[in-house]
Amino acid sequence: MASIKQLDDRRFKITVSNGYRPDGKKICKAKTIRVPESIPKRGIPQYVAHEAEELERQFKTGYSEDGNMTFEEFAERWLARQVRYAPSTLESYRRMLGRVYPFIGAIPINRLRPIALENLLAELRKRTYRGRPIGEATVQKYLTVVSAVLSDAKRNEIIQKNPARMIDLPMTHRTAQYIPSPAEIQKLLDVLAKEPRHYRMFYLLSMCTGCRRGELCALKWEDFKCSGNGLLLTVSHSRSIVPGKGVVEGSTKNGHSREIILSSDIRGILVSYRRRKQMEALQAHRELSPYLFTDEHGQLIHPDTFTKRLRKIYASIGFPKEYHLHTLRHYYVTSLLHSGVDKQTVADLVGHADTGFLERTYCHPQQEQKEQAASTMRAMLRPEGEALFNLAAAYSSKSRSA
After folding, report:
1. Could you tell me the keywords of this UniProt record (predicted)?
2. Whole-angstrom distance, CA of residue 321 vs CA of residue 124
3. pTM of the entire structure?
4. What is the Cα–Cα distance from 179 to 378, expressed in whole angstroms?
5. Fewer CB near the last or first residue (10 Å), C or N of the chain?
6. Highest CATH level, class, for 71-166
7. How far apart are CA 92 and CA 244, in angstroms?
8. Tens digit of pLDDT for each residue in 57-97?
């Protein structure tokens, strides 16, 4: 029960207790209120009772207990509790939060309002990267991280609402993703046949599994198991670049492992690749590395090496500059969806729980599908194949009416 003490005609002190501390003292919270002049005298008791009830509810449900903690303090505690993010993702969040602390870090988390976040976004839009203003999509990524922190505070009943969810944001420019055509993939495979074995194997697995770069770099021989005539691949780790720490191995991006079935052709190529790596190790008088992608000395290859090498390969065969290593992941997902594989299966294969995100991010209509759509629409307008407009008939009808 709340205790109410009248200080004068319109001032009241409300005290709420909520259990005891380890030393036996009561845990109390007090608040002095002033009843507005607009409230008539007969309405004062009801007004005060309502305020007391609201304070008691907030205090006992925990909304006020940690609400005075600054955003920076709570965000740092939030970062320390995260275990499901890959090291590179967590470090990215840490950097982004570090950039917003000067603007909102000192504000108590229960006093953070949408206007403060709007001012933050206005300041971020003034930032530049390599002499150019950063894009709106990047600005909104900062807000997404802030929102994740505030959502955690809301879930823990420290605040009642997430102010980041109350902001009207402008539309962002979505970068067009380009997917290789079947002819381009054939051309790429022909060129890869002339590449060193580790590059050939890396890019082939990228096309046939949709794995991210870091996941491929972390693959071990033990991740592959025989399954019928093919292979069962378990993807459970990733090697990513963390600023200040170099290349760090951790879990996959979503923290979960997944299984992918590979064809018998891939199995044969992988067996041949392993034999070659064993011969290299034997000639160098060393043990075979547990990892697939190592150099001639058995040392792990830096992830950037595969990215840079593929860009050179793309340039040598005249592929668009927009193509990159992740393009092969886009190709994998888009090809499966266009071939009729159900969305949930594809999402499981590439490590996404949200099929909607999968479609928005990875499913891109290829030129053939666009041409097929045009032909379908044409057939709908004139199923028999005749001309869309019978100009001769229209002209003769016009002549008769004249």
Report:
1. DNA integration, DNA recombination, DNA-binding
2. 29
3. 0.66
4. 25
5. C
6. mainly alpha
7. 12
8. 777 665 444 667 899 999 999 999 988 777 888 889 999 99
